[in-house]
Design a protein that fits this description.
Structural class: alpha+beta
Strand content: 25-35%
Radius of gyration: 18 Å
Number of helices: 4
Number of strands: 10
Shape: globular
Strand order of the largest sheet: 6-7-10-9
Length: 205
């Protein structure tokens, strides 16, 4: 196992997976209170970085602990920023099937920030990543904005099926992969029902 010359949290985001980090499958995981989740070995800095793949466990840690996904350090309430999150409404998220388990106490007209699976960063880390990351530099959807003081977390689930036992199929179970982060603002959008979906711009290869 060779250690990379690239420094985790500086040259490579802390949340990024590396080729020496193996997905182990479904296990009870402390990051989600012992619930069944996909887990992965930890060997950040060994092998090669997989920039397009977040580490399963570290991603959940960033969301639950408000850790900066770039450097891995905690963010403070006055220094939390998103780069590619989308401002929308709770009702729109429900209608588009993006947050089916969102607490019904959160009214449909409430303006929210859908950060997906990306926890907020420090401002200095935002600036660094925008300066050096070629993917972000070319992304037309970058929109740096402060993250709200209130948020909610939703598990992103998949169905997992165990191998057959003695020729008998085992029932599939729901397991957690990543965690979705939704910032909750103090604003409301009374016209949320009439707004057209935001079309995210995608660059062709």
């Amino acid at each position: 196992m060779n250690k990379s010359a690239l420094k985790v949290g500086v040259d490579v985001p802390w949340v990024t997976s590396w080729t020496e980090e193996t997905v182990l499958g479904v296990r009870p995981c402390a990051t989600v209170g012992g619930r069944a989740a996909l887990v992965q070995t930890g060997a950040a800095g060994f092998g090669k970085p997989l920039y397009s793949q977040n580490h399963l466990v570290r991603q959940r840690q960033t969301v639950l602990g408000m850790l900066c996904p770039m450097c891995g350090e905690p963010t403070s309430s006055d220094d939390r920023w998103t780069q590619v999150a989308q401002q929308t409404s709770a009702g729109r998220l429900r209608r588009e099937g993006k947050a089916m388990n969102l607490d019904r106490a959160l009214e449909d007209r409430r303006v929210v920030i859908d950060a997906g699976s990306i926890a907020p960063l420090h401002r200095r880390c935002v600036d660094r990543s925008l300066r050096y990351c070629p993917h972000l530099k070319a992304d037309p959807n970058v929109n740096v904005m402060p993250f709200p003081a209130k948020w909610t977390v939703l598990p992103l689930m998949i169905e997992a099926t165990a191998p057959m036992e003695a020729g008998v199929a085992v029932a599939a179970i729901a397991v957690i992969t990543f965690l979705q982060l939704i910032g909750v603002t103090d604003r409301v959008d009374r016209n949320w029902r009439f707004r057209k979906p935001v079309r995210r711009t995608h660059r062709s290869g």
